[in-house]
Amino acid sequence: MQPSGTLRIHELTAEERAVYATLKPEQLPEHVAIIMDGNGRWAGRRSLKRFLGHQQGAKSVQLVTETASRIGLPWLTLYAFSLENNLRRPRAEVNFLMRLLKSYLESNVQRMMDNNVRIRYIGRTHDLPPEVQDKMRWAEETTARNTGTTLTLALNYGGRSEMVDAFRGLAAEMQQKNIPPSHICEEDIHRHLYTAHMPDPDLLIRTSGEMRISNFLLWQIAYTEIFVTERLWPDFRGIHLLEAIADFQRRERRFGGIGESCGEVEEDPERMRIVAG
Ligand code: FPP
Asked: Are 39 and 232 in contact (CB under 8 A)?
């Protein structure tokens, strides 16, 4: 759970403040990840071209990030462009998404500065067009000293390819240091993931109702709470992030243990008898 003291809740909208007031500040998540889905459907329902859905989705990215920053959320990770999007979407749509990302960075870095947001990326970003990579580097360097929310965009990202990259890195290290396979532990794999520098997500939100993980943060979400909303991403705003956090706070996280309302623990296992059957 995050430390309090960085809250700028006076800058929330009145509606957001009302939901924020119901939250327990000491139990805010540290890391929220979002599968942003439904841009195409949002456009389709309005008989608009798909690219307008993506454009509207980019607005949601900025507004949700600003709310995250105002409540002092340390880590926000957004699935912006998957490896599968890159391989399976029409070239024209992929090119549009690349142009949109570039213009998003150009026009929002000042707002990130104003909101103390730092931007970073995960994924095989070295395969993105060079001019997009230049803009990404510029935005990352410009915002590097901000201390509020770290917005991580997953770009050209896939959970399985992240593991392949991690295992390659780990195998090379083991070979170099002559470490036997039996010495590998979970921490070694964690160290080689793109996300080695951040905590695992506490909460994963997926918009537009699909009950899928879609190859997102496969290793990291082992104990993450999942919240699926029917709302399409272009309609998702800061208040909906707060509502998802409110739902998260009503859950009991067990991490494989037993909950508080799960019966008494028998101290002496010898005295345990099977009663039924
Ligand atoms: C899914 O909508 C969304 C994506 C392809 C990824 C998210 C992209 C954005 C929010 C655009 C801008 C992002 C940034 C960071 C500038 P979909 O097309 O799969 O929707 P559908 O399932 O309804 O067709």
From this structure: yes
